[in-house]
Design goal:
The protein is an alpha/beta fold. The protein folds into 3 domains: 208 residues, 3-Layer(bba) Sandwich (FAD/NAD(P)-binding domain), CATH 3.50.50.60; 111 residues, FAD/NAD(P)-binding domain (3-Layer(bba) Sandwich), CATH 3.50.50.60; 105 residues, Enolase-like, domain 1 (2-Layer Sandwich). It has 14 helices and 23 strands. It has a 5-stranded mixed beta barrel with strand order 1-2-3-4-5. Strands 7-14-8-9-10 form a 5-stranded parallel sheet. A 5-stranded antiparallel sheet has the order 19-20-23-22-21, sandwiched between helices.
């Protein structure tokens, strides 16, 4: 006999486990199916352990500049094995935390590979190869994604790495090639540069972190070059071959010339591939676009009773987007089952913040200045530099700026873009503003504490309206 539930969640990443918890809160009998580690890629091999690595790089950077803070320190060297061990310990702690949350919320966990065999039915092939049959009125697919491989040079874990290999490196790179300058590529480039590797980044588009505002991209490029990185934009890797000594890359630069260069290691960060294989989608007729599952505003697929969330669906592919989609999907299901106390809402992708944890940090929400103009907005733009902020000067973090883009006619905040220390913590202030549909006067009339970095957020808005105070 199949085990019966109200909801089965396939995948336990930040989308899946949050969906399961919300379902349990709403009184739904819930099961979650996970083939590898509770918490998924984010907690075990993505967001969290990479931030632990980057924290070590940040500490090393500050210690090497101790003299500028009036401190005397001896020679500081990284111990890569200890750095990696700390990162893995952080991941383990969070994995155990998710395990506890499943027990606390009385969610049944099935460890194994799940396949949807028919609407409302799933077979789980457990670790011991025994099959367990489950059934439920509703299923949420939260299987996530994996690193996209280069067709001409698959990762081997020795010389050619994906992000997963880069988190547990077999050795310290001396000369590192990073292919791709999105968040993952730039974060690892920043980390290994801090560790002492000579880093080259190749990006096929005309600027690094190409989804960000052009001014942020330009500022970051100058900062990374100043730190010693080589950045090759409008460039591509034509071939990549690994041998016992390292990798040989043929790089086509923006002038069309092909140069052959040798590196000790290479990290491939050219995007993701959704985990949609072997879970029963084809048999059910679930619609996809380029492998990613199509969903409506309530995360429902074209097949009744099946929803999908997170990286397996459309972009942006971010953990916090997956978590929020999990709540939307579950509340829509609960409402369908007769719960009148929930009010699911469609999520506006323009209100989803993005963060890159390199040095300096990058954060943004909404439209870039260029995109706002393309959309037909007449804009007012304000900028305020870190060098004009007292707290930034006291911290010794004077590199960066805050930029805000408003609709000139309505005062709507269209976008906010930041680069500098701790901007990944600051961006939420603008995200709340966008979600609440605040206008420029709301930001202007808000009192910002002093001395804080957040004062730059106020000054940037003031600058957009010709009222800036401290520059």
């Amino acid at each position: 006999m199949a085990e019966t539930y109200d909801l089965i969640v396939l995948g336990s990443g930040p989308g899946g486990y949050v969906a399961a918890i919300r379902a349990a809160q709403l009184g739904l009998k819930t099961a979650i199916v996970e083939r590898e580690n509770l918490g998924g890629i984010c907690l075990n091999w993505g967001c969290i352990p990479t931030k632990a690595l980057l924290r070590s790089g940040e500490m090393l950077h500050h210690m090497r500049h101790a003299d500028s803070f009036g401190l005397v320190a001896g020679e500081v060297k990284p111990d890569l094995a200890k750095i990696v061990a700390r990162s893995r310990a952080v991941a383990k702690q969070l994995n155990q935390g998710v395990t506890h949350l499943m027990k606390k919320n009385k969610i049944t966990v099935h460890m194994g590979a799940g396949t949807i065999t028919a609407p409302g039915k799933m077979t789980v092939t457990a670790v011991d190869s025994k099959n367990v049959d489950l059934q439920a009125k509703h299923i949420i697919i939260a299987t996530g994604a994996r690193a996209r491989e280069l067709p001409f040079a698959e990762s081997d874990g020795k010389r050619i790495w994906t992000y997963r290999h880069a988190m547990t490196p077999p050795e310290m790179p001396t000369e590192l090639l990073v292919i791709g300058s999105g968040a993952i590529g730039i974060e690892f480039a920043s980390f290994y540069n801090d560790m002492g590797a000579k880093v080259t980044v190749v990006e096929m588009l005309d600027r690094v972190v190409p989804v960000e505002d052009a001014e942020v991209s330009d500022f970051l490029a100058k900062s990374l070059a100043k730190q010693g990185m080589t950045l090759l934009t409008s460039a591509g890797v034509d071939s990549l071959k690994a041998d016992a000594k390292g990798v040989i890359a043929k790089i086509k630069t923006k002038d069309g010339k092909v140069e052959e260069k040798r590196f000790s290691h290479c990290i491939v960060a050219v995007g993701i591939a959704p985990n949609t294989e072997n879970i029963g989608l084809e048999k059910l007729g679930v619609k996809t676009t380029k492998g990613h599952i199509d969903t409506d505003a309530m995360c429902r697929t074209n097949v009744a009773g099946i929803s999908a969330i997170g990286d397996v669906t459309a972009p942006p592919w971010l953990a916090h987007k997956a978590s929020h989609e999990g709540i939307i999907a579950v509340e829509a299901i609960a409402q369908q089952l007769g719960n009148r106390d929930v009010h699911p809402h469609a999520m506006d992708p323009r209100n989803i913040p993005g963060c890159t944890y390199c040095h300096p940090q990058v954060a943004s929400v909404g439209l870039t200045e260029a995109k706002a103009k393309e959309a037909g907005h007449e804009v007012k733009v304000g900028k305020f530099p870190f060098i004009g902020n007292g707290k930034a000067i006291a911290l010794g973090e004077t590199e960066g700026f805050v930029k805000t883009v408003f609709d000139a006619k309505t005062g709507e905040l269209l976008g906010a873009h930041m680069i500098g220390a701790e901007v990944t913590e600051l961006i939420q202030g603008y995200t709340v503003g966008k979600q609440a549909e605040l206008v420029e006067q709301d930001f202007i009339e808000t009192v910002y504490p002093h001395p804080t970095l957040s004062e730059m957020m106020h000054e940037s808005v003031l600058a957009a309206y010709g009222r800036v105070l401290h520059i």
